C-alpha cells in the first residue's frame, strides 16, 4: 500500500509522467495497428466459419502483449516470472484455418514492437505485411483453379474406402480431401464426404458416373460447399 501511495506522489515527477505517457502511446498504437490487422483479416477471410470473438481476441492479445513488454522492460527476473505464469495457460479451442494462427502472431508482433518502443518499426511492419497478405489474397496465390465443391459418396460396409477412388480422382479432379466418414442406413453403409475441385472441362455427370461404377451404383451427390 505504501508503495502504491509513493507511486501516486511520484506521478508529478516529469520522468514518471513521461514513462506513463509513453506506455499509453504504446497501448494506443498497438490498438490502432490491431484494428488494421483485423480489418485485413475480415477482408481476406474465405472459409465459412467467421468468428467475431476471434477478431476481438487479436485486438486484445495485441494490447495485452504491449502491456507485458512495458512491464518487463529490461528486468530479466520479471521476464522469467511472466514466462512461468503464462505457461500454465492452456488454449482448448482448435483453429479451423491455419491462417488464423498467423494473424494471432501478426497481432502479437505488432504489440511487442509497440511495447518495446519501436513505434516506427511497428507501423512499417504492419503496413508492409498487410500489403503482402492482401496481394496474396487478390492473386489467389497457391489456390486451385475452379470452384470447390462437396462430394458425398455412399459405399457398402465391406468396401475399404482408403484409396479406393484415387485413380478416379487423379483423372477427374485437381484437388480432393476426405473430410468426414460416417455410417448410414443403420450402419450397413459408409458415407464419405470430400472437398473437391474438378479439372477444367469435367462435368459433374462425368465424375458421378465414374464413381457409380466403383461404388455399386449407390448414392453419389455433388453440391456447393457450405
From TrEMBL:
Keywords: Membrane, Transmembrane, Transmembrane helix. The chain crosses the membrane at residues 20-41, 53-72, 101-121, 127-144. This is DUF4956 domain-containing protein. It comes from Alteribacillus bidgolensis.
Amino acid at each position: 500500500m505504501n508503495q502504491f501511495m509513493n507511486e501516486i506522489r511520484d506521478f508529478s515527477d516529469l520522468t514518471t509522467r513521461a514513462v506513463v505517457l509513453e506506455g499509453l502511446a504504446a497501448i494506443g498504437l498497438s490498438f490502432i495497428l490491431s484494428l488494421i490487422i483485423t480489418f485485413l483479416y475480415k477482408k481476406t477471410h474465405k472459409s465459412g466459419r467467421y468468428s467475431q470473438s476471434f477478431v476481438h481476441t487479436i485486438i486484445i492479445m495485441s494490447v495485452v502483449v504491449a502491456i507485458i513488454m512495458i512491464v518487463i522492460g529490461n528486468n530479466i527476473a520479471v521476464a522469467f516470472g511472466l514466462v512461468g505464469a503464462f505457461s500454465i495457460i492452456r488454449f482448448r479451442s482448435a483453429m479451423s484455418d491455419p491462417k488464423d494462427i498467423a494473424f494471432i502472431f501478426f497481432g502479437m508482433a505488432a504489440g511487442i514492437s509497440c511495447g518495446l518502443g519501436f513505434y516506427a518499426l511497428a507501423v512499417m511492419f504492419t503496413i508492409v505485411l498487410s500489403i503482402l497478405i492482401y496481394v496474396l489474397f487478390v492473386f489467389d496465390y497457391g489456390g486451385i483453379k475452379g470452384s470447390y465443391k462437396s462430394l458425398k459418396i455412399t459405399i457398402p460396409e465391406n468396401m475399404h474406402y482408403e484409396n479406393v477412388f484415387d485413380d478416379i480422382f487423379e483423372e477427374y479432379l485437381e484437388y480432393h480431401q476426405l473430410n468426414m466418414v460416417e455410417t448410414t442406413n443403420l450402419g450397413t453403409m459408409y458415407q464419405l464426404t470430400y472437398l473437391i475441385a474438378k479439372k477444367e472441362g469435367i462435368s459433374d455427370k462425368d465424375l458421378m458416373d465414374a464413381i457409380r461404377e466403383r461404388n455399386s451404383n449407390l448414392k453419389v451427390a455433388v453440391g456447393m460447399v457450405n
